[in-house]
Structures are given as structure tokens and as C-alpha cells.
Specification:
- The protein has 15 helices and twelve strands.
- It has about 475 residues and is an alpha+beta fold.
- The chain folds into three domains: about 100 residues, no CATH class; about 120 residues, no CATH class; about 170 residues, no CATH class.
- The chain has a five-stranded antiparallel β-sheet with strand order 1-2-4-5-3, sandwiched between helices. It has a five-stranded antiparallel β-sheet with strand order 6-7-9-10-8, sandwiched between helices. A two-stranded antiparallel ribbon has the order 11-12.
- Helix 8 runs antiparallel to helix 12 and helix 13 runs antiparallel to helix 14.
- Belongs to the GerABKA family.
- It comes from Paenibacillus radicis (ex Xue et al. 2023).
């Protein structure tokens, strides 16, 4: 066609934009859309087909005639342009009438809901978030069919125009946390937001801290539990991960699967997980400190074993430890970057071959090899990947401090980490709560997984307007299912 509405002039420069003129007895209709964004079946069956049947319809009649739920009339060029870029079809009657009908005909291309790929669980639901924001919100809404579930939408990124959804339950979530989260998201100025991990770093209280202050998950049942507890969930279009906050340190060592097991079993598994984290951080630094400065503290039982294993090792303990730690990190990165089948082979075969070769070449001792392997294995027990990465990085400052000052250096480094954690917050909530500030009523479910009869109140540090879950007197009348 030779003519087109003025607001479509710039869009016509794109190869995939189509501007179609439909002649009528009076003024023609102009139909514009992007072929790469529009479902051709919806376009021809519901829009173009209706124009053929009734060509003399006015714009208002056409609005009521076409059976598409999401539609609107606008004369704002910015709105029209934005909708076209979102998969809408624009219909304008005549060149001088700037009122345009916008019909949603976006094509959906993406994954169907499948099992979780990262947070796989034996017990519980098997569905996971996908890259479609509408599907993800549907998964949450199905689990929380309440009118109080609020979903606020925003758009970020001057280039990406990414849709962001903020979810919370009104009457349960503290309004101050909601306002803080919304304000931080609206204050974000960045051109491209391709994934929620970028937004996650931008809205955290301290972006320079290696400790994560929000939790990311791909499980809608976990998000529903967090919303019911008084937390806020953030999702973006194009990312299969949801982020919720505020959080404390203990939640990073809590697996949601703990709540699907009897409370005693869940408590034991949680205790093993926390002990593994402590071992993963302190095992190799203590090895360096003891062998470098405190050899007299080694038991006579282990002394012959350590001496024989280190007899031909030419390096000091710190170099020996750094070599093995770097080998483990290389194997881990190689296994993560390669295809899954090859990555598993590299992890297993590479670990065995390199470990055996390092011992036979006298680059390390059998004793240290065992400690490093157990330390790496212990770090994998952390349910949240970002905290697992933090623990991996945290070992290196402890190793250097142990080389400089021995056990005193390990103590100084521990003191520095604890001081940092005491100052850290998540949406303004203290990171070490309920231990600092101390909340004796919230100790339950922090170290152990408490029975459900103890969940009669929400955590006070979430400052929920509705702190009571149920009447605790009724819980005493009948034994809990997991007691």
C-alpha cells in the first residue's frame, strides 16, 4: 500500500511489520501488526474474517463484533506502539481518525509446565515456573484463590521493556515491606533486564555483600508458602524463577521438602545440612592453621598418618590446599558448562584421575584430599544455589587468614563475617533475626523443623498485620499429623 497512518511510519521500517489496507464503501480500515509476534490463526479467523463479513461497521461496532477478550481503544501513539510490540493487532478506520482498536493476538512460544530442573524433590508438587509471566501467575493464583492476593505490574528496561509482577497478600504482608519493594523496583534504571537475577541484585539492601538477601526459587508451591507467611514475591516475564523477600540467614539452609517429611526427620536433615555448611567453611582453613602453627595440637593417633602422607609433598600446607581447592572449582565449573552427559563424566572421571595423579605426583596428601572432597560435598547440601556459591568463595579468605595468623586468623575472619551479617538487612529486616535481635517466640522452625501445631503464629519479624494462623487451643485437642 502507498499510504498508512502517520504513527506507523517508523514501524514500517521493520521487515516483519505488515500494514494492510481493507477497502470499504466509505473510508478504508488499516490493519497493522508484527508477523513475528502475532498468531496467524487468531488474526485471520477472528479479526480479518470479521472484517470481510461486515465491512461497513463503525469502529465501535467492530470493537463489539470481534470476539477477543483483551482489547481496547486508544489514540495515544505511545500506547499503540507499545501494544503492537507486545503482539497486538491495530485496526484504524481512516487516516485522519486516530482512534485505534488494539486486539491481543500474541503468539505463545515457550516451554510447557514441567518438573523442576534445579529444585527437584521426591515429595510435593512436581510443577515449576516457566518463562511466561501469565502462566507463572496462574500457578500462584491456583494455589492462593483469594481476592486479597494482589499483583502489581510494572515495566523495566528502556530496551527490553520487561514486565515485572509484584505479588503479596493484602492483610497478611506488611505494607512497609511492600512499599519498599515497589519503590526499589520503580527506581531501577537499566536498559536491559533479561532475567530476574539482574533485578534481584539491584533491589537488595547491600549489593556489595556476597550474601544473598533474597531467595530465588522455581517452585510455585514454595512461593505460595512464602506469600502465606507474609513475604513478597517478584516475577518477571521471560524468567522461570521467582524471588521472594524479606528473608533471614536461616532460610537459606532450609529445604522446602523438610515440610513434607515428619518433623523429627526434617529436623535431623536440617541439622545435618547446617553442620555440613560449618564443616565446608572451616575444614581446610583449620588444616592450614594446625599444620602451620599448631602442630602440637595434633593427636598422637593422627600424627603418624599425617606425617606419612605429607612426607614427600614439597609445598607448604597453604599451597597444597589452594591447589586442591582450585582443582575442585575447575571440575565444578567444567561440569556445569559442558552438556549434562559429558559434565557428569568429567566430574566423576576427572575427580578420580586428578586426585590419584596429584597424590602419586606428591602434589598433595591423601589426608588433605579426603578433607577437600568432603568439604566440596558438604557445600552441595545447601538448598539455595546463591548461598552455595557464597560458601565456596568464603573459604578462601579463611584459608589466607589461617596462613597468616593460624587459629587466631580463623577467629578474626569469623568475627568479621559475623559483624557483616549483624549489619545486613533484607528489605530493612535484620538478616540474623530471630537470634539478633533475639526473638524467643520465633526460635521454632529456625534450627529444627517444628511440628505444625507450633505454627499457630506467623513469624513476628515479618510484622504481619494478621499474625495468627489458627487458634493454638484447638491444636492441643488433637495430635498433629506429624507428631
Amino acid at each position: 500500500m502507498n499510504s498508512a497512518p502517520p504513527i506507523w511510519k517508523d514501524l514500517k521500517e521493520s521487515l516483519d511489520f505488515v500494514c494492510y489496507e481493507h477497502q470499504t464503501k466509505s473510508e478504508p480500515y488499516y490493519i497493522g501488526y508484527f508477523t513475528t509476534l502475532v498468531d496467524s490463526q487468531v488474526l485471520h479467523r477472528d479479526i480479518l474474517g470479521r472484517l470481510t463479513q461486515d465491512s461497513n461497521s463503525s469502529l465501535d461496532d467492530l470493537y463489539n463484533l470481534i470476539p477477543i477478550a483483551e482489547k481496547e481503544i486508544s489514540c495515544d501513539s505511545k500506547i499503540i506502539e507499545n501494544k503492537l510490540l507486545r503482539g497486538y493487532v491495530a485496526v484504524q478506520h481512516g487516516l485522519h481518525n486516530h482512534h485505534t482498536i488494539l486486539f491481543k493476538a500474541a503468539i505463545f512460544e515457550g516451554r510447557k509446565v514441567t518438573v523442576p530442573q534445579v529444585e527437584f524433590t521426591v515429595e510435593g508438587a512436581k510443577d515449576a515456573f516457566v518463562e511466561s509471566l501469565d502462566i507463572n501467575l496462574n500457578l500462584i493464583r491456583k494455589r492462593i484463590p483469594l481476592p486479597e492476593l494482589r499483583i502489581k505490574e510494572s515495566t523495566l528496561g528502556s530496551v527490553s521493556k520487561t514486565k515485572v509482577a509484584i505479588c503479596y497478600i493484602e492483610g497478611i504482608t506488611n505494607e512497609q515491606y511492600v512499599n519498599t519493594c515497589i519503590q526499589r523496583i520503580e527506581d531501577v534504571e537499566f536498559d536491559m533486564i533479561p532475567d530476574i537475577t539482574l533485578l534481584q541484585q539491584m533491589i537488595e539492601d547491600n549489593s556489595n555483600s556476597i550474601f544473598p538477601q533474597t531467595v530465588g526459587t522455581e517452585r510455585p508451591d514454595y512461593v505460595s508458602w512464602a506469600l502465606a507467611s507474609g513475604q513478597i514475591c517478584v516475577l518477571i516475564d521471560g524468567s522461570p524463577t521467582a524471588v521472594f523477600a524479606p528473608v533471614n540467614l536461616g532460610i537459606f539452609f532450609t529445604s522446602y521438602e523438610d515440610y513434607f517429611l515428619p518433623w523429627m526427620i526434617g529436623s535431623i536433615l536440617r541439622g545435618i545440612r547446617m553442620s555440613s555448611v560449618v564443616f565446608s567453611i572451616f575444614a581446610t582453613p583449620l588444616y592450614v592453621a594446625v599444620l602451620t602453627y599448631h602442630g602440637q595440637g595434633i593427636s598422637n593417633i593422627f600424627l603418624p598418618t599425617i606425617i606419612s602422607s605429607r612426607l614427600y609433598v614439597p609445598f607448604p600446607p597453604v599451597v597444597e590446599v589452594l591447589i586442591m581447592e582450585l582443582v575442585i572449582e575447575l571440575l565444578r565449573e567444567a561440569g556445569a558448562r559442558l552438556p549434562s552427559k559429558i559434565g557428569q563424566t568429567i566430574g566423576i572421571v576427572g575427580g578420580i584421575v586428578l586426585g590419584t595423579a596429584a597424590v602419586e605426583a606428591s602434589l598433595t596428601s591423601n589426608f588433605l584430599l579426603m578433607i577437600v572432597a568432603l568439604s566440596a560435598l558438604a557445600s552441595f547440601t545447601t538448598p539455595i544455589f546463591r548461598m552455595s556459591a557464597t560458601i565456596r568463595v568464603l573459604r578462601f579468605p579463611f584459608i589466607f587468614a589461617a596462613q597468616l595468623w593460624g587459629i587466631l586468623g580463623v577467629f578474626i575472619c569469623t568475627l568479621a563475617v559475623v559483624t557483616h551479617l549483624l549489619r545486613l538487612t533484607s528489605l530493612g529486616m535484620p538478616y540474623l533475626v530471630p537470634f539478633y535481635p533475639f526473638r524467643i517466640t520465633n526460635i521454632y522452625d529456625s534450627i529444627v523443623r517444628s511440628p505444625y501445631s507450633q505454627f499457630h503464629h506467623r513469624f513476628s519479624f515479618f510484622r504481619s498485620p494478621a499474625p495468627v494462623r489458627f487458634n493454638k487451643k484447638n491444636a492441643k485437642l488433637k495430635k498433629d499429623i506429624d507428631e
